[in-house]
Amino acid sequence: MFYRPEDGHGLPHNPFNALVVPRPIGWISSRDAEGQANLAPYSFFNAVAYEPPQVMFACTSGKPDRPGMKDSVANILETGVFCVNVVEYAMRDAMNATSATLPAGVDEFQAAGLERADCVVIDCPRVAGAPAALECRLTQTVKLPGKANTVVFGKVVGVHIRDDVLVNGMVDVTLFQPLARLGYRDYTRVTEVFRLARPDD
């Protein structure tokens, strides 16, 4: 089949998210100017540069009490910092719980029964026990076409790695099985890896 997005796809559900897969999940923690914590998962997330290390996530909707954006973006614009927590398979239910649309000012850490820890470089909470967490300073936001599409870019200024996922000095993702988003309500996890050498290696 072929379709133009502006004409509609004619399928029971939008296939776009099911084609760009798997997508890593950025479990974004933030804190507003008054110190209220927030935690929410974003599946439009990735690393975008090595030197200096940088990441991005995109917010694609607003909420009734905050039109045009979600609490994460509003908090980051207020404070200039955020933390990306890596979601392991064992934390899938907690991650899903933090995707609920809750009123601004409600602490998703508490709502999901998650322990928090302080970041080291930035004033922001992180998920205690997550296999990895990236402390970030906001570098820029970009408003994309559409009603509520905002991309947030951050420079990584601190990296937490849980000791038990390091083997011979390298991260072994099979030990924590990172969660990834597929289309619809589907997810997957990394349980095995294979290696390909580049032609110029």
From TrEMBL:
Residues 18-170 form the Flavin reductase like domain. One of its GO terms (molecular function) is FMN binding. Transmembrane segments: none annotated. InterPro entries: Flavin_Rdtase-like_dom, Split_barrel_FMN-bd. SUPFAM superfamilies: FMN-binding split barrel. This is NADH-FMN oxidoreductase RutF, flavin reductase (DIM6/NTAB) family. It comes from Meinhardsimonia xiamenensis.
